[in-house]
Automatic annotation (TrEMBL):
It comes from the Bacteria. The chain crosses the membrane at residues 13-35, 47-73. PANTHER family: ATP SYNTHASE LIPID-BINDING PROTEIN, MITOCHONDRIAL, ATPASE PROTEIN 9. This is ATP synthase subunit c. Residues 16-72 form the V-ATPase proteolipid subunit C-like domain. F(1)F(0) ATP synthase produces ATP from ADP in the presence of a proton or sodium gradient. F-type ATPases consist of two structural domains, F(1) containing the extramembraneous catalytic core and F(0) containing the membrane proton channel, linked together by a central stalk and a peripheral stalk. During catalysis, ATP synthesis in the catalytic domain of F(1) is coupled via a rotary mechanism of the central stalk subunits to proton translocation. Its main location: membrane. The gene is atpE. GO terms for cellular component: plasma membrane; proton-transporting ATP synthase complex; proton-transporting two-sector ATPase complex, proton-transporting domain. It comes from Micropruina glycogenica.
Length: 74
């Protein structure tokens, strides 16, 4: 008879790993919009980039909150 393998750890980390897909797609969408906007109006590059960095920070804050909760809810 084969020995039963014991799996230890937290399922929270698997959930967080799947939840990182959302911020990844969000960051991609933010910078894709900046590239598209810059291609259409190059003179608006500065305004678009400043707004993009704010959007990037908000999206990444959600990812950081997610990993904090994944460790806290163990």
């Amino acid at each position: 008879m084969l020995p039963i393998m014991e799996i230890s750890g937290s399922l929270n980390m698997v959930g967080y790993g799947l939840a990182t897909i959302g911020p990844g797609i969000g960051v991609a969408m933010v910078f894709a919009a900046v590239i598209n906007g810059t291609a259409r109006q190059p003179e608006a590059r500065g305004a678009l980039l400043s707004t993009a960095w704010i959007g990037f920070a908000v999206v990444e804050a959600l990812a950081i909150i997610g990993i904090a909760l994944a460790f806290a809810i163990q």
